[in-house]
Amino acid sequence: MTSAWGARRAADGHPEPFDVPYVEIGNEDFLNGGTDSYNAYRYPMFYDAIKAAYPKIKIVATTTVTSRPMDVIDQHYYSSAEFFEQASTLFDGYDGSGPLVFVGEYSAIASAGGLPTGLLGNSIGEAAFMTGLERNSDVVRMSSYAPLFANYNHTQWNPDLIGYDQTSSFGSTSYWVQQMFARNVGDQVLPVTATATGLYYSATVDSRSGQAYLKIVNPADQAVPSQLTFSGRKARAARIEVLGDPDPQAGNTLAAPDAVVPSRGTLRGSGGVFTYQVPANSLTVVTVAR
After folding, report:
1. Cα→Cα distances 134→7, 103, 140, Å
2. 135: which residues sit within 8 A by CB, 6+ positions away?
3. What local confidence, expressed as pLDDT, does residue 113 receive?
4. FRET partner for 218 with CA separation of 20 to 30 A, picked from 86, 130, 188, 200?
5. What domains, with CATH codes, occur in the chain?
6. Helices 173-183 and 120-135: crossing angle, nearest 10°?
7. So what's the pLDDT on residue 196?
8. 279 preceded by a cis bond (ω within 30 of 0)
9. Residue 15: its pLDDT value, please?
């Protein structure tokens, strides 16, 4: 609080300094032939200065460099739903001795249609990708969807996470995917064995509450029958949250902001075993108590 900006921060209600564990140097420096100069002198100059003053800060590189170490590398992905489904295994087997990964920007933009906030089919492709991020969270330390906001009167990018105008706002189908992942996650990754084809999945457990969270993504246009077995659990009921629609071209708009939103229900089973028809074009989160 002894500096001008520290005093401003305190006046804004944050008297304690913010922790800054990461600093990124540049943004997408592989564009426009910038890789050579970034590696040769731009990245090293910032890296040396920051590390000299704040040795504990981790430096994020925006493209591969050899002139200095990379604590973290920022990866950006804009492509089709099919690309993201295939990329669900992108970080399986990632070399743990290399830099950590920050997936700093990603969204399915191909064939997004005229909706500024995109279509369900693309969001489900992103969800498939996110199961891989969650499953490999030992190396993929951070991720963030992009872009965030779309003003319906002045849209510059398609799709965006949240649509709005002067009087209202709503979440896209991708917004609900992000929320379902963020609100249903433990602190330890669980192994998953699956025999059903065409599904994408990840599982975590909260070590304090004991709740297990299983995420299942079905990008196909048909439901997939499955049997879910939670080993070591005796639960006879499980909570489910489902985002889905038979039409992958469905999406939310200002006129119909809740056209595709999550629904909640209960699965009944025995001894931690449940039968479940995984709906077409869907993301399901199954929550089982200890």
Report:
1. 39, 12, 8
2. 91, 92, 189, 202
3. 65
4. 188
5. 4-183 (3.20.20.80), 188-288 (2.60.40.1180)
6. 20
7. 83
8. no
9. 92
Prediction pTM value: 0.94
Instruction: Extract the tokens encoding 206.
Output: 């909260």
Residues labelled catalytic: 28
CA distance 176 to 27: 27
Read off the amino acid at residue 173: T
Per-residue pLDDT tens digits for 231-280: 989 999 999 999 999 999 999 999 999 999 999 999 999 999 999 999 99
Strand pairing category for 263-268 and 237-244:
antiparallel
Amino acid occupying residue 80: S
Which amino acid belongs to residue 187?
A: D
Phi and psi for 195 in degrees, rounded to 5?
A: -110, -25
Can you list the residues of the chain whose pLDDT is less than 50? none
Under DSSP, the state recorded for 19 is: P
H/E/C letters for each residue in the chain?
Answer: CCCHHHHHHHHCCCCCCCCCCEEEECCCCCHHHCHHHHHHHHHHHHHHHHHHHCCCCEEEECCCCCCCCCCEEEEEEEECHHHHHHHHHCCCCCCCCCCEEEEEEEEECCCCCCCCCCCHHHHHHHHHHHHHHHHCCCCEEEECCCCCEEECCCCCCCCCCEEECCCCEEECHHHHHHHHHHHCCCCEEECCCCCCCCCEEEEEECCCCCCEEEEEEECCCCCEEEEEECCCCCCCEEEEEEEECCCCCCCCCCCCCCCCCCEEEEEECECCEEEEEECCCEEEEEEECC
Cβ 258 vs Cβ 252: under 8 Å? yes
Please give the Cα distance from 130 to 145 (Å, whole number): 10
* R_g of the chain, CA atoms, integer Å: 21
Residue type, 126: E
* Cβ atoms of residues 99 and 141 within 8 Å: no
